[in-house]
């Protein structure tokens, strides 16, 4: 009998299903039983809820997935539990070599707590006769607003780089130009590592130890930061890695990896004249390392002239701000981490109710620290929707994060969805731009939901007024208001989200402007429309608000709904050919979407260009514990709808093997692919199934070869150097053309896609 993974012996305070627990923050443990593939635990997640049914979206506590091999005891860090409360809990664990297992639900019952702690209760505005009363007081204290931003990562900005002006410039204006569109005030980018990081892979600035001595500007993130800064000189910049090059394995927290982090700043300054403000010195959603930050990263930043660059962390997707537990008795650690960011503070229940979900709230300890608290990656949905988890929901989250969590900066993934259809997370983004050949793009409601905050307050120049930040109904965050004041003037702004019809009476105390109040409104049908202005009388005004809307009220001016004429969308050009001559060596190839590995244009001895896979070995794969890797370097090009076509390419096999694929569906090599090795062995595969294979006699692996695949309904033909190798009948599919490679410097040229 084959032993499978198992989680058993779930215990609360060392007991099985205990009754009478009196600790408001008990500890949990369990036993992990591995299998042959994964003998040890690689990570875990604890979920706690008020019922077994709610364990799917826990309403009491959710650690999120951790990369932690310990099986407890693990302390509960949520809101204090109450006397008599019955709590259900379960554990999910991942093996150290992938594979996942879920425990059966367990439970415990709280006893009589002698000194109960008070749980957080959100502020609720006073109401009188159905009218909400809000007073704006210039002496009211609140935190400094630090901005709304986007995370360009996971290859989510891939195809934007291929747009031509004027359309590329228009899109960038809508994203970053102040008081025009979304006006993102903070941009965090991926420090690429060459492995798949969600919707594809982004190249590294130092793929080898040799390159680390003289790092290289690659990909589009440096370009994107420069373009964003050109539109907003005050834009705040940050970077974070997902994967790492292979030479940094197996320990990514070393002196060498600190050099790798800092060298990214060197490239930004040397080649792009960019001063980056923050480094998220961690691995995305996999915590960080205290000794490395204190002893390596901060000293190296200082020594290399980057004393102004601040460290943000841990950029984790687990725990309830548990880093503050580590800070308590560690002043050095506390000092080097100058802002705290966690991911998915809202949780991952992508419905309209996610705003009321527990998620990952900040702790009292976090709030009391006085440190900047950030939602450093959140939301992750389609900006096309108004309802559900879409635009209205995001505006509500922006407000909630301050009202509940004292979070002063929120970053969403992704600011723009610029990836091929059917690739992982292809619908995510505040707007869409995935048709560079036509110039077509879509400006979605979420752009304007974001503008309701960004066009009315600037980072580090505006403060929240806490007594004018709250809810209309204690039962839900769907109706809320936050108010901010400009530091060096009497200007103020209010950002309001409604669920029901509301009547607001606003009293403006002396020291704040009681001049003309501009009003902007968004609803399901029309976004960011200026309404009739209000002139307060004797420091007061009343406004009637419609349900399920976003409003911004302000004494500032200059807001606008930026607009450009957008061209019609057209299909990917067919037939298509690519000789890689239209871009310089070291650049990205046009319309290609790397899913794993790094493909860049290089120059032949005769001065012409070809495409080269440059990663010398498999890197340190992001989320390696929780999901399967993408196997080998590959890049997509074309149209998901292609069905009957022929594709061909010239290849030079430096080592290992190369692939030409067709009808490929997305990120994980799903489609028909011809694989050719340097020794002449070949295979035609569909997903993981071999359809045909053989060996070419007298094959010369040291010269260029020509590969061709032909698709006509169920008939698939395979050619190498003009010779038919096989003809098979297999199911009809549709999808992209793929170029694949082992981790070798294999070369491609003269790609052609046509109909015979």
From TrEMBL:
Catalytic class of the enzyme: hydrolase
InterPro entries in the cross-refs: Aldolase_TIM (IPR013785), ConA-like_dom_sf (IPR013320), GH (IPR017853), GH59_C (IPR049162), GH59_cat (IPR049161), Glyco_hydro_59 (IPR001286), Ig-like_fold (IPR013783)
Domain Glycosyl hydrolase family 59 catalytic: 145-455
UniProt feature coiled coil, ranges: none
Keywords: Lipid degradation, Lipid metabolism, Sphingolipid metabolism
One GO cellular component, as annotated: lysosome
Residue ranges annotated for the Glycosyl hydrolase family 59 C-terminal lectin domain, each copy included: 594-755
EC code(s) of this entry: 3.2.1.46
Entry-linked Pfam families: Glyco_hydro_59, Glyco_hydro_59_C, Ig_Rha78A_N
Top-level taxon: Bacteria
Gene Ontology BP terms: carbohydrate metabolic process; galactosylceramide catabolic process
Provenance organism: Lutibacter agarilyticus
Protein name per UniProt: galactosylceramidase
Family per record: Belongs to the glycosyl hydrolase 59 family.
GO molecular function, one term: galactosylceramidase activity
């Amino acid at each position: 009998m084959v032993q499978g993974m198992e989680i058993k012996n779930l215990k609360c305070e060392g007991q099985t299903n205990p009754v009478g627990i009196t600790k408001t923050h008990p500890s949990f443990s369990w036993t992990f039983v591995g299998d042959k593939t994964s003998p040890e635990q690689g990570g875990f997640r604890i979920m706690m809820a008020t019922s077994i049914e709610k364990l799917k979206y826990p309403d009491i506590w959710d650690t999120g997935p951790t990369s932690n091999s310990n099986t407890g005891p693990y302390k509960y860090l949520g809101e204090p539990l109450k006397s008599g409360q019955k709590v259900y809990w379960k554990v999910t664990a991942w093996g150290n070599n992938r594979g996942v297992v879920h425990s059966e639900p367990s439970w415990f019952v709280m006893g009589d707590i002698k000194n109960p702690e008070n749980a957080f209760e959100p502020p609720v505005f006073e109401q009188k006769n159905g009218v909400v009363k809000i007073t704006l007081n210039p002496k009211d204290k609140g935190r400094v607003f630090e901005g709304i931003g986007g995370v360009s990562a996971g290859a989510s900005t891939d195809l934007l780089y291929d747009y031509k002006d004027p359309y590329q410039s228009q899109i960038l204006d809508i994203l970053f130009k102040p008081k025009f569109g979304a006006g993102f005030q903070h941009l965090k980018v991926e420090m690429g590592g060459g492995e798949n990081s969600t919707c594809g892979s982004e190249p590294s600035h130092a793929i080898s130890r040799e390159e680390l001595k003289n790092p290289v500007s690659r990909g589009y993130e440096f370009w994107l930061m420069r373009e964003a800064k050109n539109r907003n000189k005050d834009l705040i910049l940050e970077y974070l890695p997902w994967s790492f090059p292979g030479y940094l394995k197996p320990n990514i927290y070393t002196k060498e990896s600190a050099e790798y982090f800092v060298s990214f700043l060197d490239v930004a300054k040397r080649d792009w004249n960019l001063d980056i403000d923050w480094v998220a010195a961690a691995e995305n959603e996999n915590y960080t390392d205290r000794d490395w930050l204190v002893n390596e990263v901060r000293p190296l930043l200082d020594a290399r002239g980057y004393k102004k660059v601040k460290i943000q962390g841990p950029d984790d997707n687990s725990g309830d701000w548990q880093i503050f537990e580590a800070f308590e008795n560690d002043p050095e650690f506390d000092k080097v981490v100058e802002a705290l960011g966690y991911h998915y503070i809202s949780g991952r229940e992508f419905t309209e109710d996610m705003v009321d979900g527990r998620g990952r709230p900040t702790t009292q300890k976090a709030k009391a620290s006085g440190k900047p608290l950030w939602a450093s990656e959140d939301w992750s949905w389609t900006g096309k929707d108004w309802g559900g988890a879409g635009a209205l929901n995001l505006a509500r989250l922006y407000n909630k994060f301050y009202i509940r969590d004292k979070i002063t900066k929120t970053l969403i993934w992704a600011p723009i969805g610029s990836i091929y259809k059917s690739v992982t997370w292809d619908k995510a983004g505040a707007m869409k731009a995935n048709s560079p050949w036509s110039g077509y793009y879509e400006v979605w409601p979420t752009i304007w939901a974001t503008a309701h905050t960004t066009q009315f307050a600037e980072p580090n120049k505006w403060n929240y007024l806490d007594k004018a930040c709250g809810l209309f109904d204690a039962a839900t965050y769907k109706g809320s208001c936050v108010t901010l004041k400009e530091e060096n003037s009497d200007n103020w702004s209010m950002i309001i989200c409604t669920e029901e019809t509301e009547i607001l009476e606003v009293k403006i105390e002396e020291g704040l402007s009681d001049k003309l109040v501009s009003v902007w409104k968004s609803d399901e049908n029309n976004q960011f429309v200026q309404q009739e202005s209000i002139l307060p009388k004797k420091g007061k005004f009343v406004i009637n608000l419609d349900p399920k809307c976003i409003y911004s009220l302000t004494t500032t001016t200059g807001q606008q709904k930026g607009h450009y004429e957008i061209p019609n969308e057209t299909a990917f050009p067919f037939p298509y050919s690519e000789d890689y001559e239209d871009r310089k060596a070291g650049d990205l190839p046009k319309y290609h979407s790397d899913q794993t590995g790094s493909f860049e244009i290089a120059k032949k001895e005769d001065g012409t260009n070809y495409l080269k896979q440059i990663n010398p070995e498999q890197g340190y794969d992001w989320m390696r514990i929780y999901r399967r890797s993408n196997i080998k370097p590959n890049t997509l090009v074309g149209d998901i709808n292609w069905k009957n076509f022929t594709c061909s390419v010239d290849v030079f096999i430096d080592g290992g093997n190369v692939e030409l694929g067709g009808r490929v569906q997305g990120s994980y090599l799903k489609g028909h692919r011809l694989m050719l090795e340097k020794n002449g062995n070949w295979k035609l595969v569909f997903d993981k199934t071999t359809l045909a294979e053989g060996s070419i006699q007298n094959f010369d692996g040291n010269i260029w070869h020509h590969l061709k695949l032909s698709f006509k309904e169920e008939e698939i033909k395979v050619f190498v150097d003009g010779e038919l190798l096989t003809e098979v009948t297999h199911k009809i599919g549709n999808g992209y053309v793929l170029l694949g490679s082992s981790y070798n410097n294999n070369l491609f040229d003269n790609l052609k896609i046509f109909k015979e």
